[in-house]
Amino acid sequence: MAIVKATKATAEKALKAVDWAAQDALTDADIERQAAENPDAAPILTDRESAAGMVLALRARLKLSQAAFADRYGIPVGTLRDWEQRRRIPDQAATSYLKVIMREPEMTARALGTAAE
């Protein structure tokens, strides 16, 4: 497959060609149908199914190892590892907790008494 280099001008032209009103008018059902019809489309993941990527991205953003993240937020390291390796999917409560950590990592650590000094 050839490598195609995109320039800023090419990207701007592509963005101008998008019918944003039509995109905004799409319903969730439209999006799901289009994704199902496109063999190249990645599957649409639920929050729980995308938790592995969420945990990895969050740890990377916070620059924490598995052990440090687990200790800071009171999650057993084995559970964290299972989520990241997709052996287990976090339940709804754990998914909600991960969202809180994602949005307010320092506040969450302070509330737990595990914030870095």
Automatic annotation (TrEMBL):
SUPFAM superfamilies, per the entry: lambda repressor-like DNA-binding domains
InterPro entries hit by this protein: Cro/C1-type_HTH, Lambda_DNA-bd_dom_sf
Residue ranges occupied by any HTH cro/C1-type domain in the UniProt entry: 55-92
Gene3D superfamilies hit by this protein: lambda repressor-like DNA-binding domains
Name of this chain's protein: Helix-turn-helix domain-containing protein
PROSITE patterns: HTH_CROC1 (PS50943)
Pfam families documented for this protein: HTH_3
Species assigned in the record: Rhodovarius crocodyli
GO molecular function: DNA binding
Highest taxon listed in the record's lineage: Bacteria
